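hiii, so i know i said id send this last week but things got crazy w the move. better late than never?? heres the sequnce for the chain we talked about at the cafe, plus the structure i predicted for it. fair warning i was half asleep when i ran it
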Amino acid sequence: MTSTIIWTVAVITVLGLVLALVLYLVAQKFKVEEDPRIDEVEKVMPGANCGGCGFAGCRAFAEAAVKAPNLDKNYCPVGGNDTMAKVAAILGYEVKAKAPMVAVVRCNGTCEARPRVNDYDGFASCVVKSTLYTGDTGCAFGCLGCGDCVSACQFGALSMDPATGLPVVDQDKCTACGSCVKACPKLIIELRPKGPRGMREFVSCVNKDKGPVAKKACTNACIGCGICAKTCTHDAITVENNIAYIDPAKCKLCRECEAMCPTGAIHGIGFPKPLDKDAIKERIKIRQQKAKEAAALATDASAVANKKADAPAEASVADAAAKVKEDKKDE
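okay and structure toks below
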């Protein structure tokens, strides 16, 4: 009995050692060497794991950055330029500084401007509501008001304003991770450059209906009239699908489009002084008057130049006619 137990223990011990040796050899043969720089890059990351960089988390971003030939396609919006400078130093790459971004809500449909046409009594979720119907107001493009974007934000940068029923962005807390953008089923949240000293202009509407329909659904809606595009002297505004869009790269922050918008769909944020519509409209009027006068002068100058150019030709015709008369007289 005792010998049987001893042999059993011995066999199991030997078998365990053999299997351990086999596992060790297999692990050594198929082991994957990991670049130690991945750990170094991960340490300088903010650790938010928000997915704003396009990867599952900071570890995945670090792996992609180490394997990439450069950092042109890798950027951490939460850490920003400071974090990317540290990553570049570890990897020996060069990185271009990017303008800080911030989320903006492209819906101006307040409770007063966009009254409810029905009451929603289901689960409080924008995604759920959007799958059931277009919303409880007449606008099929606007904010649904359930706050999915607020829940998605990990930095407390979003909150719902009970007075307007719309989300409000705290630009000091916003990291431009893009979580709110992904969470909104109506796609009314956009990441835009913060602008110089935090000043920026954008069209706070995404309604693609024609003017009368959009205006009926929301008095603050963009009606696609194109006044803003005609007013802008920097070609920063385009109107497509009945909706205006301001290119932040071309916008000079003159606020003329904001002053001329008939529905108030264009918003200016971060400006130190309130918008003086009357002063801006007067400035535009003077500029347009000067442009008309310049065009009139150019037309007159062109007419004079054409007249001078035609004068030699008229003289030649007159000389030819006189010569014909003389020839007939000689005959």
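btw The beta strands are 101-105, 158-161, 166-169, 189-193, 200-203, 237-240, 243-246, 266-269. thought thatd interest u
miss u guys!!
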